[in-house]
Amino acid sequence: KKLSSEQVRDMFLDFFHDKHHHTIKHSASLVPKNDPSLLWINSGVATMKRYFDGEVVPKNRRITSSQKSLRTNDIENVGRTRRHQTMFEMLGNFSVGDYFRDQAIAWACDLLMNPNYFGWDPNRLYVTAYPKDHDTKRDWIKGGIPKDHIVNMKSNFWDVGEGPCGPDTEIFYDRGPKFDNLKPGDPEDYPGGENNRWLEVWDIVLSQFNHEPDGSYKPLPRKNIDTGMGLERVVSVFQNAPTNFETDLFLPIIHATEKLSDNRKYVPSMTNRDTIAFKVIADHIRAVTFAINDGALPSNVGRGYVIRRLIRRATVMGRRLGIDHPFLYKLVPVVGKIMQHPYPEVYKNRKYLEKVIHSEEVSFDATLADGLKLLKSVLADVKKSHKKIIPGDVAFKLYDTYGFPLQLTAEYAHEQKLDVDKKGFKVGMKAQQERARKARGNKQAMGIQNDLLVDVKTPSKYVGYHQLHVNGAKIT
Ligand code: ATP
């Protein structure tokens, strides 16, 4: 079955609204309201903390939404993996002390496998569960997941310190052997490991304990469900796309960029440098357009800094495609058109958004030119002194002050048969991160994620929201 992104989004929301009496909550702004612990809204549940911590009781305890979410920790993944965006939409269904595991899993099975909805073949579906969570495993089997498609995963426990927590269970779609990137027998070859073949599409969190200040876990009087399904990933399955980018959510942006480029053509690939540039541009302009529309502005701090970095990275990628003038702003109406159905305000505000982005591009052009001047003089000095290496602190300055990614500096250096001191660059980066961390001070519980998300330059895996979803999860 082939579905458009609009059909997938509506199908999910209608399923929970029409069939299971959830209230549809329109996506909240990417900019958190009254929540200083969070830089960006990074999941559906992040907009509902006051329901989940019991501060407010919603009129209807069943809620569903498609929430715009932004994760700075995934920026470096964009273009490198098949499944990450900076901004994505997270479909979710929520039970604020209403239904629990058995219904959540039964409905998930219905949505995923019933031909009236997704209609996916159960043989393609794998789920992970916390080893001791036998109820969850039983419910999946009852719903039609083959018994040998259930993978025990110790890391499936959602816990961010004090507050509600509990096991979670993740759903993977098997994209088939074509997507295998590991050899048989590789220890990472399992759903949740490093093999792209299994695409994580949905996560269901069963919050049933309170993590007490003394470290103990008390059962919650009312249990909650919180789920997150990546719209772009599901759409990639329905559109048989090799990555999230070859879908109706991104292809129009990519095609518009082709026209602006120096005769480059987009070819689906995981390694082609132009392809990666097209993907990064499509991703970043979308994130930036939405972030600005939601009230953020480019600047040197916090959210504004993230926007500035995204525009700069996309500009540099544009250079790679032979575009040496402001161009990102021209993609704004394309983004607006794609998202017109759920978010008509973006297309409506396009003139304003174009203006903000254009002026940022113009000022970055000047910065880039200054950076290039510095780089050229350093290259000349290094050559004159018969050295072979650009010092790490210079590479870091180019990065930090002039927005030159290390890769770009390295490319200029290689043209002159020189190298870059990457270690020295990392030292500069580490010191800067340490300073930023100190400046932020201590944060607790939900705030943990902020520490990880605030630094746009940390190429880390996301370990905040699901703190225990760390690399190297083992099958037990
Ligand atoms: P991954 O390990 O693949 O990065 P995750 O464990 O960080 O995913 P969750 O925090 O469980 O993801 O988020 C719920 C769902 O949101 C995921 O199952 C996925 O479908 C989607 N999702 C998460 N991060 C991204 C992203 N950067 N881009 C697109 N979709 C995402």
TrEMBL record:
Catalyzes the attachment of alanine to tRNA(Ala) in a two-step reaction: alanine is first activated by ATP to form Ala-AMP and then transferred to the acceptor end of tRNA(Ala). Also edits incorrectly charged Ser-tRNA(Ala) and Gly-tRNA(Ala) via its editing domain. Its EC number is 6.1.1.7. One of its GO terms (molecular function) is zinc ion binding. It comes from the Bacteria. The keyword Cytoplasm applies. One of its GO terms (biological process) is alanyl-tRNA aminoacylation. Its cofactor is Zn(2+). GO terms for cellular component: cytosol. It catalyses: tRNA(Ala) + L-alanine + ATP = L-alanyl-tRNA(Ala) + AMP + diphosphate. Residues 3-476 form the Alanyl-transfer RNA synthetases family profile domain. Consists of three domains; the N-terminal catalytic domain, the editing domain and the C-terminal C-Ala domain. The editing domain removes incorrectly charged amino acids, while the C-Ala domain, along with tRNA(Ala), serves as a bridge to cooperatively bring together the editing and aminoacylation centers thus stimulating deacylation of misacylated tRNAs. Belongs to the class-II aminoacyl-tRNA synthetase family. It is found in: Cytoplasm. Keywords: Aminoacyl-tRNA synthetase, ATP-binding, Coiled coil, Cytoplasm, Ligase, Metal-binding, Nucleotide-binding, Protein biosynthesis, RNA-binding, tRNA-binding, Zinc. Binds 1 zinc ion per subunit. This is Alanine--tRNA ligase. It comes from Acetilactobacillus jinshanensis.
